[in-house]
Amino acid sequence: MAEAVAPQTQKGILGWIERSGNKLPDPVFLFFWLIAGLVVISIIASLLGWSAAHPTELDEATGQARIIEATSLLSAENIQRLWVEMPKTFTHFHPLGYVLVVMLGAGVAERAGLFGTAMRAGVRNAPKALLTPIVVFVGMMGNLAADAAYVVLIPLAGIIFHAAGRHPVAGIAAAFAGVSGGFSANLLPGQLDALLFGITEASVETVFGDFTANIAGNWYFIAAMTFVFLPVIWYVTDRMIEPRLGPWDPSRAKHDGAGEQTDRPLTDGEKKGLRMAGLAVLGIVALWLVFTFGPGTPLINEDATPEARLTPFYQSLVAGFFLLFLLAGWAYGKGAGTITDHRSLVKMMSGAMEDLAYYLVLAFAAAHFVAMFAWSNLGLILAVEGADFLGSSGLPAWALLAAIILVSALLNIFVGSASAKWALLSPVLVPMLMLLGISPEMATAAYRVGDGATNIITPLMVYFPLILIFCQRWDKDFGLGSLAATMLPFSIGLLVAGLAMTIGWVVLDLPLGPGASVFMEVPTTVAPTAPAAAQ
To answer: Global pTM?
Structure first.
């Protein structure tokens, strides 16, 4: 196997990023350290008497806004809460249920081979003139396949570019930019939407009580990102990266089989599986249309206000994607011969849960950080004070969201996990922006733009060493710095395009998804302490 350049040999900004990032603990322990720091801060805040007026609750005795005071996490009540409610704190963490349900189905689709075959079918016969945009588009759509997009499409893109007489590393770079740089861009909501909106929901509830996330709340936004990012990656690949790489020199190839992925034609079984999977997808879509518009309209609440009538439909999408992936994967497996009976199906579902073992540990730590943040009341106080400050600053909403994108992009260099970063940021950012009249869906969308743009330049990204190995198959001297330098123009282009798109979306006040908009009414039963968003 090709060896990556050792981190200590890297110099300059890349070396500093790698050294600094490697000093950070694993995200699980990062949350434990943050909890320890949170305990200390809560004690100090309690002693200093930090407080804020609750934005939505009235004090029955005075008729004024209820005053919320910072509470020490070492108070008797909070210590009891921690130990008595530990199972509840973990199991009631919203992202946990969302991700487990969706992954039960997606795991079958991945293990049956549906995702890998679909990506191969999408790129292997692409016309040479359209090779780059097709690889990029399949890469962005491949986000639904999670790991499969990295291990199947990216090395395959190198082989296909080579077969077309183009530099194979340019193909790897284009596919990597599509899969990882365009991490949130997709025509369909999927696993990432369930994960992030679960965290968003938990963050809203810590301050404002009951709130149900709509995992399609960014649907229009991420679909538009697909068409905004595609020409950016296409241009950077064909006009900047490939000319810089020059003609490929076969003498530089490393022939050790690292990252081998054959570009073989689809078998008859695989073609049959894809047809059966397509029919299964159409069947699930038709079923949901019947549930939504058919007799009894079970997914429409006819008695609700017009804007709330589709709430059951939005809430059903997690189950809908579970069935979509499960039945499409099962149909593909039956057609391709990768699923022989119900026992192999159950084994695949079990395997998907095994893959989530690390996420379960991370979710345990994140759930307690989010819960304890709420128990201390620091989240509410910081949100109110932050909203006051930002409201008095006069900054328009687009400037606030642009700042969130930049902060997310910077933090992403050091903390690779999308869920870990959002669990850190959202307990303060989401309520604070809500108090400025900016919706939770818009806050989530802005975070997603920043999170994806710098995925492709940080050596701490979990797949970065694997991509390096794929490149070294074609160029044995291709180092970690070479990969980061190759991907940097993509990262800058995606960040600039994402910022421009977000600013335009906010200024035009376009809908983010079904039932989701950029702005919202400030959630308050008393006079707001800060102006709504400056539009």
So the answer is: 0.73
